[in-house]
Write a structure and sequence with these properties.
It is a single chain. By secondary structure, the chain is of the alpha+beta class. The chain has helices at about 20-40, 65-75, 85-100, 120-130, 150-165, 165-170, 200-205, 235-240, 395; strands at about 50, 85, 135-145, 180-185, 190-200, 220-225, 235, 245-250, 250-255, 255-260, 270-275, 275-280, 285-295, 300, 305-310, 320-325, 335-345, 355-365, 370-375, 380, 390, 405-410, 415-420, 425-430, 435-440, 450. Strands 1-20-26-25-22 form a five-stranded mixed β-sheet, with no helix packed on it. Strands 9-18-17-13-14 form a five-stranded mixed β-sheet, with no helix packed on it. A four-stranded mixed β-sheet has the order 2-4-5-3. The protein is globular. The termini are far apart. The relative contact order is 0.11. This is CAP domain-containing protein. It holds the Pfam family CAP. Keywords: Membrane, Transmembrane, Transmembrane helix. InterPro entries: CAP_dom, CAP_sf.
Length: about 450
């Protein structure tokens, strides 16, 4: 029997693979050294790294559409909800389309050549949709490059802004309006939000009435020039029962700041705190004489305020039944406040004055985004692409920390979403370890760093 025997080459292993073992040892050693080197040179987070505070969450209103949210605000103030009007919704939507091309036109449409033109004035636009009542009101808010939030929250923010604007607030809280339509359009970086509101009873009667001033019942109060067809409507057919007064703000999610309105109730200022207001029912039977109007933060009276009424309103839009107190500095976030309005109610019948007081409380909201309270020199931990609100003290900013100078390193890219008197809403996009250093422009505030984690 023959036996074949294979012997390994001298100094090797069977099959000629003896060289792999030392090679694998050297490769393993090299990988270990590279990992160790990478660990040693990897930038470690600064020891004083700070993390953002949590901003305002949507809560019970987060999923509401714009009309439902407006009705929530009216409900907090003790007013009835707006019904959704198809005609007013169409007129508001058409005007919102127009305003994304011509935001400066506000309540007018001065470009009839526009494909979105629907009528020069509000009355023309609602008439085009079939609305008969001439007492419709309109509130408009436009912004460019708005905050990085979804469509629903963006409309909530438009309403929050309108409710800090005192003339618009009085309109949106009108007790004699009971229906509305809302339009919202985003195009070419422009956002247009429009509320049209009216009185459903008056609109219905305008479509039915054939009265003229010659055949009215003289013992009944009536409105002339209220209908598209020139008809007369009686007050007792259309008026809505109103509360004795409407005080605002109320609730637990109140905005802290007022920054823009046309016309401007504070023409000498760029911003202020959210105004506190009270509007009395003009049909209540009394004349109102203000004795005092005060705002308290805890037990401390808020100083540096300005009070507007029919005499002191620079635009002469207040009625003798409307009063507002403006804190000239923004209110503090997430803080309880208490308003106290003392007045004399002077009877129209006997002329007697009775001193009375209205007192109400509210709580301000947190910022809309996760936020940092800064002094300068901080190292902030942020997530790539997530918006953050950077706030510096107003005492350092003097109200103009809305512009920043910055430098970036790595592949970090800074996006500025919104500028506010005490800071900016920004996001940083990039890979971990990249970042941005920034500071308010023209201020002696040290740079702070946003570090992507």
């Amino acid at each position: 029997m023959n036996h074949n025997r294979h012997s390994a080459p001298p100094g090797g292993t069977e099959g000629g693979k003896g060289w792999l073992r030392p090679l694998l040892v050297w490769v393993g050693l090299l990988v270990t050294l590279l990992l160790l080197f990478g660990f040693m040179v990897r930038p470690r987070p600064p020891e004083n790294l700070i993390y953002p505070k949590t901003g305002q969450t949507g809560g019970e209103t987060g999923g509401m559409d714009a009309l439902a949210y407006l009705n929530h605000l009216r409900g907090e103030a003790g007013l009835g909800a707006f019904a959704r009007s198809p005609e007013l919704t169409r007129s508001a939507a058409a005007h919102a389309d127009y305003l994304t091309d011509f935001p400066e036109d506000m309540h007018d449409e001065n470009h009839p050549e526009s494909r979105f033109f629907s009528g020069k004035e509000l009355g023309d636009r609602v008439k085009k949709t079939g609305y008969q009542y001439l007492g419709a009101q309109e509130n408009v808010s436009t912004v460019s490059n708005s905050e990085p939030v979804g469509k629903t929250l963006q409309q909530h923010l438009h309403l929050d802004g309108l409710m800090t604007a005192i003339y618009h607030r009085f309109s949106l809280l009108d007790a004699n309006s009971d229906e509305a339509g809302i339009g919202y359009t985003v195009r070419n970086g422009n956002h247009a939000f429009v509320v049209n509101q009216g009185n459903s009873r008056a609109n219905k009667r305008c479509g039915q009435t054939k009265h003229s001033e010659e055949d009215v019942e003289e013992y009944r109060s009536f409105y002339s020039s209220a209908c598209q067809n020139g008809g007369i409507i009686y007050a007792d057919e259309v008026d809505i029962a109103a509360p004795d007064y409407v005080a605002y703000p109320v609730g637990k999610r109140v905005a802290t700041m007022f920054a823009n309105e046309t016309p401007n109730p504070l023409p000498d200022r760029k911003f202020s705190g959210n105004p506190v207001s009270i509007a009395f029912n003009e049909e209540g039977g009394d004349e109102i004489e203000m004795l005092s109007f005060e705002l308290f933060k805890g037990k401390e009276k808020v100083g540096n305020t300005r009070i507007l009424d029919a005499e002191t309103d620079p635009n002469k839009l207040f009625t003798p039944y409307q009063f507002a107190l403006f804190p000239l500095d923004p209110l503090a976030y997430d803080t309880e406040y208490r308003a106290v309005f003392r007045y004399a109610a002077i009877s129209k019948e006997d002329g007697l004055a009775r001193e009375k007081k209205v007192e109400w409380a509210f709580r301000t909201r947190k910022p809309n985004f996760d936020y940092f309270n800064l002094q300068g020199g901080e190292n902030m931990a942020v997530q790539s692409g997530k918006p953050h609100y950077l706030r510096w003290p107003l005492s350092l900013c003097k109200g103009d920390c809305d512009n920043v100078s910055y430098s970036s390193y790595g592949d970090a890219e800074l996006v500025i979403h919104e500028s506010l008197p005490d800071g900016v809403v920004v996001s940083v996009k990039g890979s971990r370890g990249s970042g941005v250093r920034l500071a308010p422009e023209g201020k002696s505030i040290p740079e702070s760093a946003l570090l992507i984690q």
